[in-house]
Fold each of these.
Amino acid sequence: MPTETLSLSAPPNDPVVGLKQRLRRAERRRKLLYGALILPLALFLAIAFIWPIAALLKRSVDNPEVHGALPQTLAVLKHWSGDELPPAEAYAALTRELTAIRGTPELGTAAKRLNRETPGYRSLIMKTARKMPLDDGVDPQGALMSIDSRWSDVDIWQTIKRTGSPYTAFYMLSALDLTIDADGDLAATPPEESIYLDILGRTFWMSLIVAVCCLLLGFPVAYLMANLPQDKSNNLMIFVLLPFWTSVLVRVAAWIVLLQNDGLVNQALIALGITDAPLQLVFNRIGVYIAMVHILLPFMVLPLYSVMKGISPVYMRAAMSLGCPPFKSFWKVYFPQTLPGIGAGSLLVFIICMGYYITPALLGSPQEQMVSYFIAFYTNQTINWGMAAALSAVLLAATLVLYVFYARRLGASQAPAGR
């Protein structure tokens, strides 16, 4: 009996195969359509958000001043050990380059950058440049030492070599109160110059206090809105959203009027007999806390309300019907389901607070200024883009760490509670 060979391949005109191909083509067209719809937003985010952040982060490590002003000197110093004075070629190259850039902005920026590493370097560079060019036949090494004896100091030349790289960690280390010592090792900044870790700690602490205050005030409001009838809840929502319709600057100015010594708050406290003299409520941390809680409170209420609105009241009624007291039912049944809103609202308020500038600048004293104030200071006044970018990078890194912690720990642990 002849054996029949069964073909495992489908016939060429199999309708099942044709249907699968049409489904795959339809799926590809659907994905291409979705991609075309998302593409404008993706381009907008890349141009208006990702590219500026990347450019700012590059500024924090960019170091073009000395590298662009003294390339020949740096080429000679590249193979210099640094244990003794550099060779005569380094002195000759420095005199040629100082002569070439004398009187140009390039000289000023290079001297300013060197001065950040070693105080007094700017006056040395400017003093030496004014003596350029040297007379023909003059020994450059002896001439520089006669102009200023500091040119016979090995540390001066080490500074030129250290700052000659096109990229540097100087600004990032300074933002963390760290520096590189003469031996090239990582060291802490002297206590009299160490300020940025204190500023970062102050920023985190003030942001935490504001977030906790917003949570304590916003939780009852969100709970009331979630359990009121629809018409009353909508009216209360209008009052919550009302601050969004007013400029932040106007709200801060209003708080200055209310909290000053002759303001309405102090007048009310004196009239009620609570105090005998006006309290100092402005230009200190109390005024900053009050204004920032008022401004950021809606960012806490709205996430809480969105989560509480989705919690069925059946859970509470079931717990109480089984003999659980009302407060214990609330704590054991209702409160765990609000944790996603608490986490989202607290994270949102905390992150926004870390980057606030106007409110502490107008309502606070120098002891209340946060990282954003110093970023604006280096950007607008000293024009030190590297330091401003480094502080911004530290602030961005802290924000990302908080977000990752929330997403991996709190978000994962709270997801089952919300379902």
Amino acid sequence: MDQIRKHFERTFELSDKDWQIFSSKLKKKEFAKKHVLLKAGQIENHLSFIEAGIIRFYISKEENDLTFAFTFDNCFISGYDSFLTQTPSIYHIETLTDTTLWQLTYNDLQIIYKETEIGNSIGRHASEDLFLKKSKRELSLLNETAQQRYLNLLTEQPHLISHIPLKYIASYIGITPQALSRIRRRIS
């Protein structure tokens, strides 16, 4: 839980009182590898912080899943569009490794907004973090080659990339597993 406080305190000052209210609403949950956190059709009820683990967002297709995001340690995670609107998600979220999350429910977040001075800053920080990751991903797909996207992933998370199956990485960067194999041979 200290990890979350340190994460917030890089951006803003957090009083002990506000931290006590916020942290009292957090629930620590551990999930095994390949656990589906959110299924398409379900409503997201949690904003979570990853203490440890790797999580994948994907759309299920008959032939191949379409992976569109990975999230790693020290990041927020949520099916955020479903969380905000309280409508069913159109995608799945699953753990790729054993994962530890600190979770906050939608209703508890509303209480934090009302009862703390810093609540709105916490919510804004989490939503800005999620938005910036989404924006970066979209711009990467528009402006970079598949090889550049792969190298970026290697640079950003070199110690974790080995835990992601290559078929998911290929889908994430928008190519086939065979094309990823060619890129990997070319850069090694």
